[in-house]
Amino acid sequence: MKNVIKFINDAANWASDWVMLFLRFVLAFGFYHPAVNKFKSLYATTEWFASMNYPLPKFTVILVGSIEFAGFFLLILGLLTRYITIPLMFIMLVAIFTVHLGNGFAAGDNGMEIPIYYLIMLLVLFTKGPGRFSIDEAVVEKIKEQQ
């Protein structure tokens, strides 16, 4: 029984860095298209944000799109991972409460399902970090070597 438990723990430890890499990639690509669409349809998105009474709608569209676009690149690289999750979590919370909450849970009804999944994934990255396959981790290792 000890061997089975050790095997499972070793396998989980080995897989955890790969899981964090795949989690970052999935999440990054989840932010890519919304960011691109905000800039492709800047006028329409600004009108939509204005209809929801967001302050400074054009500025907000550009800000949110820029954060999502930065999130795409930083999550792919595993660079400043914990830092980029903070504004992305804020964006998800705003989206949940202002767009999706009134539509229920189901993604097919434009509900809060997908933003909640993204929020949970962002929380995992914030609390656990980006994993070994990241620039963040390489920098930490380099600093440890120099001490």
Q: How many separate helices?
A: 6
Per the principal axes of the C-alpha atoms, what is the gross shape? Answer: globular
Poorly predicted regions = none
| Mean of pLDDT | 95
Which key phrases capture this entry?
single chain, 147 residues, mainly alpha
SSE blueprint and pairings:
Layout: H1 2-40, H2 42-51, H3 57-77, H4 81-100, H5 113-128, H6 135-146
Helix pairs in contact: 1-3, 1-5, 2-3, 3-4, 4-5
The gist of it:
It contains six helices and no strands.
What does this structure look like?
This protein is mainly α. The chain has one domain. The protein has helices at residues 2-40, 42-51, 57-77, 81-100, 113-128, 135-146. Helix 2 packs across helix 3, helix 3 (57-77) crosses helix 4 (81-100) and helix 4 (81-100) runs antiparallel to helix 5. The longest helix has 39 residues, at 2-40. The radius of gyration is 18 Å and the shape is globular. It starts with a helix and ends with a helix.
